[in-house]
Design brief:
The chain is an alpha+beta fold. It is built from eleven helices and 39 strands. Helices cover 15% and strands 34% of the residues. It is globular and about 80 Å long. The N terminus is likely disordered.
Length: 659
């Protein structure tokens, strides 16, 4: 088929004549009223890619689970196919053909089955000559009207239109052409523009489709999820009913993150009014995955009809506050902790945009509990965690107990066999007093925990705080690593039953660093995160599997020791206030050729003490020296060079610390 105007495709013959001859009032466009709230549903890609388990049985099984497990009732609606559903070649008439092994009954039969469950059906293709899988299935470029008609005839309700093999044709032209082709079918089809944010679709696509990808693909890692979230958050002004910023599909349940991180993922996607497309194989999902995905109070934040995306009101040192205005006048507030240690994060109802009132109701959307506050919204948020609340001015605020803020202060490190001091606090954020306040700290079996200072008080008035010092001992021989403690506070308020507040704490059993100069890669880190695959010791990062890197090499020089990472990355070590200097040779690893940019930073107890500018693969290894005297921990950070994280394979070579 000949392309017209650099990729545009002619409309069906006779369309212009019909437009002239028809003098009736124009009908509502086919896409009118679509996606007035962010689409919710399922897409197989994150869990299956093109593996054999992506087939008709899987798709039907997901539809069944939507109904049986209550996901449909919770608002999930679309069951969407991604790449690899078709044969590699079109038929003699230029039509797409379903893979007969994966879909022996054809696509329409699958769509009919999904529809029979009261659900909607979605499909995938690319705005290029081929789709993105390495096999290269047929793309839609040059076939827009034919493919759109075929999709409509099959009963498709949602199209994801990717960006591979686009032949350099203008993005606006390619995506607009398919948008017009979908409208021409007369069938309401939600149009998902998946051009990865490369051409800033939020600035031009509001009249083309209902949602647009703002980033490249997500993967099932903390670093990937946070990187994508940070790129999507500033685009809040472009979201509204029928138009949504899309930071890609959910990874909840796929196993690459902790439950805490998955709750953050779901919370932040919801406060960003993002599409909620489940990306895990629900046939294998555990109870916790369903508990996260079916949280209707969090879903209600995402699906609020006002259609606002949450706005960042502060983001200092990894402590994020994001506020979303709701249709009923309340505010959803996310307190998000990007860092690998617990952090106190706080804001006020005034900063959130609520009117003045004598008191406010605070609803915790994960604990499903109501409290009241005089105006402060504050919590100690676990590492990589998010506290998500809904706050409203409420004349009946006094019917709820006062909100209390639990905290952990001081050192979070324990040397096995040696008592350490852990300090906890409980503060009253409400207007009414908390009565008969009692705190309790518990540790793993075999640990000894006892209060050194009072852990109870008969009255904790508004704005006051009770701090308690605890002696915590891990048995001699306890292996290094993170261990959980639990801080529980009970209190009374008026005639209400006693309230309970809990704060999971974490302490790390550590081994003090040896005197002298040593290679950090020979030690055990406290925590690590990486943009691609795991952090590697004494190897480059390689690909996504552990141990698949090569000898560390920067500018042709090889190094036997060090760390191989991929931006964005953080690796934290305990140095116990015993060390003075950290040194390294840093740069982009040669394994990615001329690709990649990155910047290196060294942080000591929250202070940046050394950094490079942006380096690329033409840069030789750069010597980095950091003064870490008096620091309890050092954190090694690699960020991308401002051009995305593709190929950002970075090396901390010959990484030494002097103690």
């Amino acid at each position: 088929m000949t392309l017209l105007a650099a990729g545009a495709v002619a409309a069906p013959a006779g369309a212009a004549e019909l437009a002239v001859a028809d003098t009736r009032a124009p009908a509502a466009p086919a896409d009118a009223g679509l996606a007035l709230t962010p689409p919710m549903g399922f897409n197989n890609w994150n869990s299956t890619h093109c593996r054999a388990e992506f087939d008709e049985a899987m798709v039907k099984g997901i539809a069944d689970i939507f109904v049986e497990k209550g996901l449909k009732a919770a608002g999930y609606e679309y069951v969407n196919l991604d790449d690899c559903w078709a044969l590699p070649q079109r038929d003699a008439n230029g039509k797409l053909v379903a893979d007969p092994v994966r879909f022996p009954h054809g696509i329409k039969a699958v769509a009919d089955y999904v529809h029979s469950k009261g659900l909607k059906f979605g499909i995938y293709t690319s705005a290029g000559t081929k789709t993105c899988d390495r096999v290269g299935f047929p793309g839609g470029l040059g076939h827009e009207y034919s493919d759109a008609r075929q999709f409509a005839d099959w009963g498709v309700d949602y199209l994801k239109y990717d960006n591979c093999y686009n032949e350099g044709v203008d993005a606006k032209l390619r995506y607009t052409t398919m948008g017009e082709a979908l409208k021409a079918t007369g069938r309401p089809i939600v149009y998902s523009i998946c051009e990865w944010g490369a051409n800033r679709p939020w600035e031009w696509a509001s009249n083309v489709g209902q949602l647009w990808r703002t980033t490249g693909d997500i993967n099932d890692s903390w670093a990937s999820m946070v990187s994508i979230m940070k790129r999507n958050l500033p685009l809040d002004a472009y979201a509204k009913p029928g138009n949504w910023n899309d930071p890609d599909m959910l990874e909840v349940g796929n196993g690459g993150m902790t439950d805490t991180e998955y709750r953050t993922h779901f919370s932040m996607w919801s406060i960003m009014a993002a599409p909620l497309l489940i990306g895990t194989d629900l046939r294998k999902a555990d109870d916790t995955t369903f508990e996260i995905l079916e949280n209707r109070e969090v879903i209600a934040v995402d699906q609020d009809p006002l259609g606002k995306q949450g706005k960042v009101i502060s983001s200092e040192d990894g402590r994020w506050v994001v506020v979303k205005e709701m249709a009923d006048g309340s505010r959803a507030i996310a307190l998000f902790n990007e860092t690998s240690r617990p952090q106190r994060i706080s804001t006020t109802v005034q900063d959130a945009g609520l009117p003045r009132a004598s008191g406010y109701r605070v609803r915790d959307l994960w604990k499903h509990e109501d409290r009241h506050t005089a105006g402060a919204v504050s919590a100690t948020v676990p590492a990589h965690g998010t506290v998500l609340v809904r706050v409203s001015a409420d004349r009946k605020w006094a019917a709820h107990p006062p909100a209390v803020e639990l905290g952990q202060n001081g050192s979070q490190f324990v040397v096995a066999g040696t008592p350490a001091t852990v300090t906890t606090s409980v503060g009253n954020l409400g207007r009414l007093p908390a009565l008969a306040v009692s705190g309790r700290l518990t540790g793993p079996e075999g640990w000894r925990v006892s209060a050194r200072t009072p852990s109870r008080t008969p009255v904790l008035t508004a704005g006051r705080k009770l701090s308690t010092e605890w002696s915590v001992s891990a048995p001699a021989g306890t292996a290094p690593g993170a261990y959980d403690l639990a801080f529980t506070v009970t209190y009374a308020s008026g005639a209400a039953p006693r309230s309970t507040a809990e704060l999971p704490l974490s302490v790390s059993v550590v081994v003090p660093p040896k005197a002298g100069t040593s290679q950090l890669s020979d030690g055990t880190w406290l925590s690590s995160s990486n943009g691609w695959g795991p952090v590697e010791k004494d190897r480059s990062v390689g690909e996504s599997a552990a141990g698949d890197g090569r000898t560390l090499t920067i500018g042709g020089t090889t190094y036997a020791k060090g760390l191989g990472v991929h931006a964005p990355s953080e690796v934290e070590y305990y140095v116990g206030k015993r060390c003075s200097t950290l040194t390294a040779q840093v740069g982009l690893d040669d394994e990615t050729g001329a690709n990649g940019t990155a910047a290196f930073e060294v942080w000591a107890d929250g202070r940046k003490v050394a950094s490079t500018g942006v380096l690329d693969n033409s840069s030789p290894a750069q010597a980095l020296t950091a003064d870490v005297a008096g620091a309890e921990t050092v954190r090694l950070v690699v960020t991308d060079g401002g051009d995305g994280v593709t190929y950002d394979h970075a090396d901390w070579a010959d990484l030494k610390v002097s103690c």
